[in-house]
Amino acid sequence: MSDTDVKQALVLVVEDYQDAREMYAAYLQFSGYRVAEATNGLEAIEKTLELLPDIILMDLALPKMDGWEATRRLKSDARTKHIPIVALTGHALAGHAEGARQAGCDAFVTKPCLPDALVAEIRRMLASRDVPPDAGEAKRPAKPTGRRR
Amino acid sequence: MARSAAATAVHFTGVDMEAKLALLEFLLTNSDLQASARRAIDWLAAHAGVQQAVVAVAEPGAGPLLLVAEHGVSSAAIVDFALTRDDEGHPLVRAMLRSDPTYFDGSPMPFRVPIENLAFHAVPLRAEEDLSAHGLLLTSASGAEVHPDVTWIARMLGRQAARLQSRQTLAETRFGQERMLLYSIINAVTDPILLTDTEGKLIIANTHAEKLFAAPEDASEGWRRAVALNNMLFSAALSTSAVAQIEPARRELLLVDPLEGSDLLFELLSSRAKDERQGTYVVSVLRNVTDLARAKEEIEESYRTLRLAQAEVRDERHRLDLIIDSVADPILVTDQEGDIVLMNEPAERLFYVPPAAGEASQRRVHANGANLTSFVSNVLTRGGEQRYRGEIQLAEPVTGRPSPVEGLAGQILSEQGELMWVVTILHDLTEAHEKARLYEQLKEGSAELERKVQEATTELADQNELLRRQHIALEQASALKSQFLANMSHEFRTPLNAILGYTHMLLNGVTGPVVETQRKSLTRIDSKSRHLLALINDILDITRIEAGRMPLNLTTFHIPELVDEVMSELEPIIKRSNLTVRPSMSRTLPALRSDRQKVKQIVLNLLSNSLKFTPAGTVTVGATYDSRTRNLAISVSDTGVGIATDDQVKVFEDFRQLDGSPARGYGGTGLGLSICRRLSQMLGGTIELQSTPGKGSVFTLRLPTRLRRR
């Protein structure tokens, strides 16, 4: 897989805070990704079904439908379950990470997360998606950057 | 009655005449004027009723009158008698010049007369043919009329005096007077006195001796025999004393009373008198010791009984003393008058003070005595009451301190039922009063205490209720606080996320190139935002620990690997610091079962802390195992600024960086060590600090090798 392919990947940023959403979107675009945005869980599902993004950056605390629920639904839908979801949370409590994993998140990033670190994580996830599916399933979620809890 | 009187007179006249003839014969045949005078006045005493009589004879011419015989006159009067014929004014001298008797009516006279305080006649001794008197006969009188026998005797003695005058020397007359005086003296002695030859033959005896050793002619047969026996006994006694040659000999002599027939015990005192012309005489004085001997025996007997009784009494008394002295309570024995006759030592302290003691003490003793007396009078006056019990107010003599006592007085009666003494036992009530007072106090105190306990219990119940409510409120508040902090921390993170993100993007040139001054400001914003983030994270950690919302995740791991990890995470800082940082691990460290992540966080904090505060030198991370306590110790030693002893506890407190110190320059949240302390507690371990300012610090984390969930 070439570097160009990666850079053309579509990232769905699900975040209710506009400034954070726009910041991550701007930096991802700056880093060469295509970006779609959603502001809540329902919209995230709609956009996913509509756009079938390469990867989803999912904030867990969302209005209307939270990130966990949205993740569960996407992971239980055959059309979307192959799409990696990176959970994003401001709550550093262990319960959140565990809950995100149980809901089907593939990776877990704690806010505040520097745009650099976020991009690095997305790049890593996309790279692991491109290896054969059975090998990819065996992969443990990578360590999130920032403070380890 | 008249006949009887006449018969008596006739009878007397007969006897009288006979005696008169005998006397006359004696006077005519005798050539001793003194013997005649004695015989004559004895006869007057017997026949003319004369009570007292004296014969005084005079030398021819001038010179003193000499008393030659007396009857019934005291020896003192004889000795005192002095009269000379030169004293012509003297009534007696004048009486001598007269031919008739002179009557003195017994009224007081300005001179001494042998016949004292009685009327008497002074009759001159003269024969009818004599021109002057040879002496005087003084006879006591019952009236002015002179008894015819008195004048007769005076005439007879006058004649004899005239007859003898030429032959008799003055010396003989004087000797006669002295002999008479001697007689009167030895007769006046109540003890028998004898002059004998060495064989015991009587030469002179006084009247008392005559009673023992001479019997009158008309004496009874028994009398005579008794006298003979006495003479024999006396001779025997004298002869043994002569043999013994003890001078003067003193012995006991048992004689017989010739009249009573009873035994008489005498003490015989005899001494020898040598006379060159007439040989050796023995003078003996007998002292009647019959009564004395009897008395002595009795005395000895009673003395012996007394001694026995005394010994018994002494023993008894001794025992009694021991008993009453062993009693700590005062005991007194008083007589019927209330006077103390016996008391023990404790009683003495109340009722006796030495005379030298002060006036106040004496007064108190008197007052005590008076109180005792009035107390004792209860058993003296209350008829039939043999015992009395009551309280007496006494005072200590020396201090004057009041000494209330309870007294028990009891009568001691003689066998006849008479009251002899009163025994009083006193019992000090000071202590009893004190006890009663203390007991009252105690009761009050107890009541007070009970009241207080009740109050306290009520209050405690109230407090408990209050506390319970407060506890609930606190639990709610604590839960709310934790929730609030967790939320707050989340809410902090979201804007911080944006701040950090955009700063980062700006620095990465997302919005175009940044000039150097802008980069400097952005770098500073970045740095401070990171610091703020670290603070928020630390606060969140503490909140979670305190809220119990930081669960333990136990695994088994090895320290050296963990230390390597920590050191590599801090690699950039170590590189910047120019310090030598090296691990120093024991080779035989056991695996540790604990929460790896938390242990790592502690080590990370300690190491970064040391790096921060060590300007130069070495930082060593060591690990040792103590098999005895089964503790693993991880220590971080540095050669940094160190921490003063007073501050060594403070560094573990929240937000504590030693103020004014380089801490500000070192950055950090000030919560690192506080979190380390909390985490080590969670892991069942401790953190210790040893430090010398200017030399460096050693932080030691001790952990049990196997942590068990609580």
Structural summary, described in words:
- The complex is a heterodimer of chains A (149) and B (710).
- Chain A is an alpha/beta fold and 149 residues long.
- Helix content of chain A is 46%, strand content 16%.
- Chain A has a 5-stranded parallel beta sheet, sandwiched between helices.
- In chain A, β3 (55-59), α4 and β4 (85-89) form a beta-alpha-beta unit.
- In chain A, α2 crosses α6.
- The termini of chain A are far apart.
- Mean pLDDT of chain A is 77; it is low at 131-149.
- Chain B has 710 residues and is an alpha+beta fold.
- In chain B, the strands form 5 sheets. Chain B has a 5-stranded antiparallel beta sheet. In chain B, strands 7-6-10-9-8 form a 5-stranded antiparallel beta sheet, with helices on both faces.
- Mean pLDDT of chain B is 80; it is low at 1-12 and 660-665.
- At the A-B interface, α2 of A face α12 and α13 of B.
Please describe the structure with a list of short key phrases separated by commas or semicolons:
heterodimer; A: 5-stranded parallel sheet; 7 helices; 5 strands; globular; B: 710 residues; alpha+beta; 5-stranded antiparallel sheet; 18 helices; rod-shaped
Radius of gyration of chain A from CA coordinates: 14 Å
Write down the Rg of chain B: 72 Å
Structural class of chain A: alpha/beta
Per DSSP, the total helix count of chain A is 7
Task: Say what oligomer this is.
Answer: heterodimer
The run of helices and strands of chain A is HEHEHEHEHEHH
Biggest sheet layout of chain B: 5 strands, antiparallel
On the 0 to 100 scale, the average pLDDT of chain B is 80
| Strand portion of chain B | 15-25%
Query: How many E-type strands of chain A?
Result: 5
The main β sheet of chain A shows up as: 5 strands, parallel
Shape of chain B: rod-shaped
- Output mean pLDDT of chain A: 77
Proportion in β-strands of chain A: 15-25%
The unreliable regions of chain A are: 131-149
Range of helix content of chain B: 40-55%
Low confidence ranges of chain B: 1-12, 660-665
Report how far the terminal alpha carbons of chain B are from each other: 157 Å
Tell me how many strands of chain B there are: 22
Give the helix/strand class of chain B: alpha+beta
Numbering strands along the chain, what is their spatial order in the largest sheet of chain B? Answer: 2-1-5-4-3
